[in-house]
C-alpha cells in the first residue's frame, strides 16, 4: 500500500502536536506543580522530543501563560457577552457567570490551573503580572459594571462591595482551596456556596422573603 503523502501528514501534525503539548503540560503542571515541572517531562508525556516543544513555546513560562489564556479567556468573553448582549438583571448576570465558572473551570481539569495560580504565583511574579493584566483586571471591570448597575437599581444589600469587587471570586477560590486541602474530609457544595453569595450580595425581590 502506498504511503500517505507527506504533505497531508504535515498539514495535520502541527496542530495535533500543539494540542498534545498543551494537554501534556496541563497534566504535568497539575502533577508536579509549576516550579518542579520540566520541559522534558512535558515532552515525554506528549510522546515527542524536547526540542519539538520549543518549536511551539520558547520556555515553560510562555507555555503556562498560554494555558491560562486558553482556559480562562473564553470564560471572560462569555461573561462579557452576558453583560453586553442582554438585559438580564444583575443578580442573574452574576448567576450566569458563576454557572460558567463552575461548568467550564471548576468541573474540569482547568481547575488545576487555578489551584496552581493560587498556590504558586507569588513565587513567579512575571506570570502573576500576566494573569492579573489579562484575566483579573478585565474580569473585575466587568464585575464592577454589574455591581454598579445593581447599585443604581437599588438591588445591592451594601455598596461596600463596590470598593472590593475582588470578593466576588471568593466562592470559586474557596472551592479550589477546599479541594486541594480538605476534600478528603468532606465535600463543599459549590452550588450552595454560589447561591448563598448571591443572597448575600443582593436584596430579595419583592415578595421574596430571605
UniProtKB/TrEMBL annotation:
HTH tetR-type domain sequence ranges = 15-75
Question: What's the superkingdom here?
Answer: Bacteria
Gene3D superfamilies, per this entry? Answer: Tetracycline Repressor, domain 2 (1.10.357.10)
- DNA-binding region(s) in UniProt: 38-57
Q: Where is the signal peptide?
A: none
Going by the UniProt record, its keywords in alphabetical order are: DNA-binding
* SUPFAM superfamilies reported in the protein's UniProt record: Homeodomain-like, Tetracyclin repressor-like, C-terminal domain
Q: What is this protein called?
A: AcrR family transcriptional regulator
Q: Which organism is it from?
A: Martelella mangrovi
Q: What is the lineage of its organism?
A: Bacteria, Pseudomonadati, Pseudomonadota, Alphaproteobacteria, Hyphomicrobiales
Amino acid at each position: 500500500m502506498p504511503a500517505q503523502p507527506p504533505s497531508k501528514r504535515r498539514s495535520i501534525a502541527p496542530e495535533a502536536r500543539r494540542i498534545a503539548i498543551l494537554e501534556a503540560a496541563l497534566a504535568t503542571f497539575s502533577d508536579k506543580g509549576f516550579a518542579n515541572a520540566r520541559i522534558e517531562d512535558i515532552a515525554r508525556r506528549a510522546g515527542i522530543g524536547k526540542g519539538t516543544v520549543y518549536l511551539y513555546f520558547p520556555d515553560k513560562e510562555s507555555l503556562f501563560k498560554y494555558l491560562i489564556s486558553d482556559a480562562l479567556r473564553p470564560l471572560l468573553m462569555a461573561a462579557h457577552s452576558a453583560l453586553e448582549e442582554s438585559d438580564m438583571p444583575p443578580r442573574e448576570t452574576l448567576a450566569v457567570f458563576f454557572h460558567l465558572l463552575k461548568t467550564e473551570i471548576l468541573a474540569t481539569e482547568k481547575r488545576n490551573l487555578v489551584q496552581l495560580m493560587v498556590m504558586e504565583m507569588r513565587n513567579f511574579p512575571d506570570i502573576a503580572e500576566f494573569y492579573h493584566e489579562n484575566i483579573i483586571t478585565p474580569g473585575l471591570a466587568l464585575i464592577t459594571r454589574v455591581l454598579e448597575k445593581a447599585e443604581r437599581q437599588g438591588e445591592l444589600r451594601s455598596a461596600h462591595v463596590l470598593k472590593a469587587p475582588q470578593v466576588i471570586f471568593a466562592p470559586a477560590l474557596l472551592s479550589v482551596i477546599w479541594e486541594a486541602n480538605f476534600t478528603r474530609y468532606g465535600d463543599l457544595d459549590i452550588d450552595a456556596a454560589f447561591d448563598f453569595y448571591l443572597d448575600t450580595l443582593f436584596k430579595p425581590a419583592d415578595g421574596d422573603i430571605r
